Amino acid sequence: MNKEIKRIAVFTSGGDAPGMNAALRAVVRNASFHDLHVYGIYRGYEGMIDGDFERLERGDVGNIIHRGGTILKTARSERFRTPEGRKAAYESLLAFDIDACVAIGGNGTFTGANIFSEEYDIPFIGIPGTIDNDLFGTDFTVGFDTAVNTAIDAVDKIRDTADSHNRLFFVEVMGRHSGYIALNTSIGSGAGSVVIPETNTPIEELIDILKKGARRKKLFSVIIVAEGNQTGNAQEIARMVKEQFDFYDTKVAIIGHLQRGGSPTAMDRVLASRLGFHAVEGLLEGRENVMTGLVNNKIKYTPFHEAIVKPKRPDKDLIRMAEILAL
């Protein structure tokens, strides 16, 4: 980097995740400590194109660390996918004399930042804010822990009904391309099985598991289904299972967007604060076009293209453990 950092912009983009506000707070307060001017951009890349910027002081991010969602709002921008949209965004950054940007978001957010940085000389640093935990270069993403806790709380309640009525519940959680939420929810809730995108789970295998439970006089069962698995969604899997094994009264529960909301857990607040703090430190050290992550409890900076492209899969030992503990 060949220019001094005096003004930075920060924005949240893509799907919201609990802890985004905590990350924003850390960025603003560390930047203020270093006498940097900070501007918040509303609605992500859409706001960048429209010039929707606001100066942020330390007091503006007070009393937000516990809040879910994002006070800067968020959006997905089709306009930013075009050269014309990115040019308009660049002109907005120049109009506010922005020297660098901090992007809080997931895969799509970092893809946009990577393309933009190749076209224009404004460095970006990313903070991984996505409940899916699917970005390479960090053990955990901001929002993941809260989403898992929300899902487990829902499954605990569903378990009470399943137990009372001798029912089989297929509980669908988020994860179009990643099984992290489903796998951790399954282990944390003591579910009977889990279906994730990273493994192919035939219907026959699920039925075999249920039959073993029935032989043990197991009166109910809960199976966690990641929405993007290879076998089908929860409704489809429930239908296929019921056609071949109707021992249980079969129901489906889709937790949906409940997993995105709510007050972030302590883990997400601390993680977001650490990543937000070190995003500013990274910019001041001359780093650019990288994601700030946490690996083995140490801060690590990973180039955007690696964070986006390199696969991140659940540990095989964790999957094996989940299968054994569910028996």
What's the main sheet like?
Answer: 7 strands, mixed
Low-confidence stretches are none
CATH architectural group of the largest domain: 3-Layer(aba) Sandwich
Q: Let me know the average pLDDT.
A: 95
β-strand number: 11
Distance between the termini: 55 Å
| DSSP strand content | 15-25%
Helix content: 40-55%
Query: Helical element count?
Result: 11
**Total domain count:** 2
**How does the overall form come out from the CA principal axes?**
elongated
- How does the helix and strand content classify structurally? alpha/beta
* Main β-sheet, spatial strand arrangement: 3-2-1-4-5-10-11
And the CATH topology of the largest domain? Answer: Rossmann fold
- The radius of gyration computed from the alpha-carbon positions, rounded to a whole number of angstroms, is 22 Å
Query: N-to-C SSE series?
Result: EHEHEHEHEHEHEHEHEHEEHH
CATH class identity of the largest domain:
Alpha Beta
Describe the fold and architecture:
- The protein is of the alpha/beta class.
- The protein folds into two domains: 7-143 and 264-309, Rossmann fold; 144-260, Phosphofructokinase domain (Rossmann fold), CATH 3.40.50.460.
- It is built from eleven helices and eleven strands.
- It has helices at 20-33, 44-50, 83-95, 107-119, 144-165, 180-189, 203-215, 234-244, 266-284, 304-309, 316-326; strands spanning 7-12, 37-41, 53-56, 100-105, 124-128, 167-173, 193-195, 221-226, 249-254, 290-295, 298-303.
- The strands form two sheets. It has a seven-stranded mixed beta sheet, sandwiched between helices. It has a four-stranded parallel beta sheet with strand order 7-8-6-9, sandwiched between helices.
- A hairpin with a 2-residue loop joins β10 (290-295) and β11 (298-303).
- α1 (20-33) packs parallel to α9, α5 (144-165) crosses α6 and α7 (203-215) crosses α8 (234-244).
- The longest helix has 22 residues, at 144-165.
- The radius of gyration is 22 Å and the shape is elongated.
- The model has no long low-confidence stretch (mean pLDDT 95).
